[in-house]
Description:
This protein has 239 residues and is an alpha+beta fold. It contains 10 helices and 6 strands, in the order βββββαβααααααααα. This is AraC family transcriptional regulator.
Amino acid sequence: MYTERTSRLTGAVVWTKFPTGTGNGTGTGTGTGVRPVLPDGCMDLLWSEGRLLVAGPDTRPYAPEGPARSWAGIRFHPGTAPTLLGVPAHELRDRRVELADLWPAGRVRRLCDRVAAAPDPARALEDIALERAAEAGPPNPLLHRLVQCLDEGRPVSATAAELGLNERGLHRRCLTAFGYGPKTLARILRLRRALALARTGTPYAETAIRAGYADQPHLAREVRRLAGMPLGELLAGGG
């Protein structure tokens, strides 16, 4: 069973997932019922079985094999995690890594003990993220505006101009903050818009146009590339 709630950390989501016999929402589990984690422009701090991990930004569906287990996580708003974690996003692209590979081992052991002792691991993760955010200071408003512009479907060139950057400078900033260039980020954000529309029952042809695709076949191709399956199958599985 998967549940989520809005975090006290601006733009973040706190979530938990418990095994139901067919896997869990982190993309791990046994059997054919495992649903992949889709690219979403975000990074997560994860807790499972005494381990703290970081999920880097995905460019493809993520569905590792392994036994079903319980997870807790906090999903950061796009572009905010690298500052909190102290590592450029592109170094974690399409990876899941131990937090101890990024932070001093002693510090991570203390954090693991803290989460393990907490009655609610998800809230403990949220508290850790809030403390780290207080140390790091406010997020860069330029990155927030960048995500907003691309999520509105604006061209990369127009977005760069509005932010006062050339396209090469925009690309460098995107690699550090999101793990990939602005065109990939725009594709992922467009997919999120399409899925949100399709889940409301909007016809696929209308979904394609409203989300910013040329037509329904364009939408279908992009869903297969980024989600690894047809749109109908993805929605039927709760993706």
